[in-house]
Amino acid sequence: MRHKTTILAALLLAAACGAPPASAQTKAKPKPKPTPAAKAGAFSLPYEKFTLENGLEVVLHEDHSDPIVAFATVVHVGSNREKPGKTGFAHFFEHMSFNDSENTPVGANRKLIEEWGGQRNGSTWSDGTQYYEVVPKDAFDKIMWIDSDRLGYMIKTVTTEALAREIQVVKNEKRQNYDNVAYGSVNEVLRKNLYPADHPYNWTVIGSLPDLQAATLPDVQEFYRQYYGPNNATLVIAGDINIAETKAKVQRWFGEIKKGPAVPALKPRPAGLTQTKSLYIEDNFARLPQLQMVFPSIQEYHRDTYALLVLSELLAGNRTSPLYKVIVEERKLAPNVVAYQNSSELAGEFTLQVRANPNTSLQQVHSAIEEGLKRFETQGFSDTELARIRAKIETDLYSGVESVLSKALQMGRDNEFAGDPAYLVKDAQMAQAVTRADVMRVYNQYLKGKPYVMTSVVPKGQQNLVVPGAQLATVYQEKVVAGVQNEDVGQGKEAVFEKTVTKNDRSEPGFLQTPLFKMPAIWNAALANGLQVYGIDNREIPLVTFDVTIPGGHSLDPLAKAGTASLVAQMLTQGTARKTPAQLEEAIDLLGASISVNSTAEEIRVQARCLARNFAPTLALVQEMLLQPRWDATEFARLKSSLATNLKGQEANAAVIASQNFNRLLYGPSHVLSYPTTGTLATTAGITLDDLKAYYNANISPSGAAVHVVGAIDQNAVTAALKPLETSWAAKPVRLAQQPAPAQAPAGNVYFIDVPEAKQSVLYAGRLALRGTDPDMSKATFANTLLGAGSSGRLTQLLRIQKGYTYGAYSAVQEQQEMAPFVVSTSVRANATGASLQLIRELLTNYGPTFSPADVETAKSKIMKGNTLAYESQGAKLGILRRISKFHKSPKFLEDDQQQLMKMGVADFQATIGKYMAEKDLVYVVVGDKATQYEEVKKFANGKLTLLDATGNPVN
C-alpha cells in the first residue's frame, strides 16, 4: 500500500530510550482522544492548568473510561540545544535519566513500572524530550514518586560506570536503526547539507558515534543543571483521576524541586538554502535505488503547515495524484511515491521520496517528479480532492486519540511549544479551513522553482544509477574489529552521595486500591450463511473498527507459489467489478474511512475503520470489494512488479534474513510456514492472475469466517447493516490444508549467515513449542513474562542494562492454529556476538531451575495489572474478538486465564519452562559479519557451526 501522511500531524524526529519500538527516527505526533460526549464538529479537550512556584506547568485531564492513568513530562530541550562535537547529547541524557535517582531503587525506572503492570518510555526529537508512563490507577502515587525523583533528584546518582554503559546502549541503538539498515545515513546527509554548520538542525538527533563516545560525567551534570529545571517543562496527568486530589499530590511531590536557570527561547530560523544541492550515497545495505528531494519550508504551528500537509496529499496521496500517475502508473519506475511535510520548532521540510525498482536510473525518476509537478501546476485539483482530504481530517482526529497516553503526550507538547494544551482543537479547525488558494500559494512559495537538497542512494557498485552531477556525500563509517574489548562495560558500583534534604518524605509510597480487569460485554450472532459475528459496543470515540476474517490465508498457498494469498488480498483493493481502483479509493476517502486487506499465516482479513455514522456505507464497500473483485490484469502486473521490488529490497536486511531462515529451519522446506507470507522472488515469479482466481474461488467463503466489530454501534445496527452480505455471500465448503508435520532442525544446532560489514549481529534462538489451542498456551505465555516480555524481562536487563551489548532483547510464545515457536531475538553490537550468545545460553539454562516464589508473585502482578491497560483501544478489543472466534474461547477467557494464573505455583512455572523453553531444545541463527564474527560463533557452537547463504542453503 502507498504511504499516506497524517493530515493532522507533522512528523517529528524522535529518539527513544527504554522499550522499543520507539527509536531515534521520524515519528508522527500522537493525538489525544475526545471525551465520550464529543461529536463531529464539536471536538473538545477539557483540562485544568496551573503553575507551581518553581515554574513547572501542570495540565490535568479527567477520563474515567478505564482505571488507568497516564503521565507525560515534556522538557523543552532537544538536539537543537547541542553544540558541534557534542551531538546526540539530548537523546543520550534521556537515556541517562532512566537509570537511577536519589530516592528510588537502582533500576526502578526500567524494571518496576512494568512489574506494576505499566508501560514507560521516553523520546527525544530536535526540539524536546518527553518521558511517559501509563499505569493501572493503583500505581498513581508510585509514578508521582518516580517521575518527580527523575526530574529533580537524579543527577547525584550518575556514575562513570553508568555513563560508560549507557554510551554503549545508545551506540547500539544507532547501529541498529541507522548504521545497519538501508538508507540509514540519508538523514545525516540531508541535515548537513540543508542547514548551515551553525544551525541547530545541522546534525541528527541520534548524533555521531565519536561524539557519543566522548561524553563525560561533567557533560551530563552541566546539561542537567542548564536544561532540566521544572521551569523548562510541562507535566500532564490524564486518566482516571480526581482533579483536586491530584493537584495536592503534584504540589507534594513536585513542589520542592529546585527551579532551574531561565532557558532563552530560540527564534524560528529557516534553512536558508540558496542553491540546489545534489549528492549521492553508495549504500552497503540498499538493494534498491532511492531519490529524495527536500525543500525548506516553515516551522511548526505556522498556518502554512496545514496547507503544505494538504499539498502533500494532493501531490502523492492517492491514485489520481500527479506524482503517482506519472511515476507509478505511466512510467512504471517505482511501486509508490511519498510526499510529506515535517515541521519543527525552528524550521520545516517538504519531502518527495521515491524508492525505485531495481536498476532504475534515478535521473528518470527525477524527470518524472518534475513532470508530475508540472501537471499539478497546469491541471490543479478538483473540489472532490479537497473534500476527500477534509473527510479524512475528522476521522484522523479521533483515530489518533484513543488512549489517555497519546492524549497526555499531545497536550504536553502543545502546552510546552504552543502554550495551549488544547491546541489540537485549533489544529483540526485550521486544517479543515485550508482553501484552494492556500494550497497554490504554498506550492509557489515553497516548491516551484525553489532550491532543494537531492540525495541519490544506490546499492554499492551501482553508481551508474545516480543522478548525473551528484557529488559523493561524506558519511562516517564505523569499523568493526574482531576481538575488540574496549567497549565491555558493566553495572558498576552504586553512587555514593548525600541525599538532598526535602520537607516531604520521599520514600516509596504504597499501592492504592487494585483495579481488577473485567472483560467488556461481548455479543455474538450467527448469520444464515454461516458467518459468525462478534461485537463490543464501545462509545469512547465516535468510530467503528471492524473486520471480516476468512480462515486459510498463507496456509492454503501452494508450496511452489507461496505468496498467492498475499497477492489475492492485495488484488481485492484494486477496484471492483463496478469501480476502477481510483473510483474505489475515492469512495473510501469521501467517507473518511480506511479499508485494507491483508493475508496472515492463517487468514485473509478485510479490516476497516470509519466514523460510526458511516458504518453501513463503509461495510457496503467492503462487501463490494470482497464479492465483486475486478481482477484487472494491469493492476496485477503492477502488484507483481511492486512485490518483486520490495522483496529485492529486503535481501540485505539482516533482521529479515534472520527471521525467514529461522522459520525455514524450524518448519523444514516442505511446510508452507517455512516461507514468508509474501513469498520469495522464486515462489512469486510464476504466480498468474488465474492462480489468484483459483485461490479465491476455492477458499473465500463465509464458512468458518467471522465479522468482528468494535465501536460506537450496537448489535441491532450491525446485524441490519450485514443483511446484504448475509444474502449475497453464499456458503461453500473450504478444505483447510493438512500440513506435513514440521521437521525442524535438530536441537542445539547453530547456523551463521554472512552480511558483510554488518555493524550488529541479529541473534535468534527457539524451537517449535505448541498450538494456540493447546491448554498450556496461557501457561507458556505467563512463564515467558519475566524472561523476555518487555524491558523488565531478564534478557533486556542482562544484555542491555548490565552489559550494554544491545538496544533490547525479547522472547515470546506465538499463538496460532499451527504449531508455533518460542522465540528469543535480539540485535547486538558485532564484537559482542560471542559473549551475547553465551549469556543467552546461561540465562535460559538457569531460568527454570531458579524460578522462585518471589518470581511467581512478580509475574502475577505484572500480568494481572497489565491487563487493565492492555485492552484500552478499539484495535486491542478487536484482538479479543479475533481470539474468541479463532480459538473458540469463552467470552470471559481473559478472566478465566487470570484465575488459572492465580492458581499457578513455582512448580507450575518451572514445569512449563522446562517443557517449552529449555535451552537444550533450541536452534540458534546468527546473521552478521562473517569476517569478524564467524570464529567467535564457532567457539559458542563447540565447532559445530553450519554456514548458510541468505536463502538458507548450506555454503561449503
From TrEMBL:
Q: Record's InterPro entries?
A: Metalloenz_LuxS/M16, MPP/UQCRC_Complex, Pept_M16_N, Peptidase_M16_C
Enumerate the UniProt keywords alphabetically: Signal
Entry superkingdom: Bacteria
Q: Which residues belong to any copy of the Peptidase M16 N-terminal domain?
A: 58-174, 542-654
Question: Which stretches make up the Peptidase M16 C-terminal domain?
Answer: 216-392, 687-862
Signal peptide span: 1-24
What the record says about family reads: Belongs to the peptidase M16 family.
Q: What is the protein's name according to its record?
A: Pitrilysin family protein
- Taxonomically, what lineage is the organism? Bacteria, Pseudomonadati, Bacteroidota, Cytophagia, Cytophagales
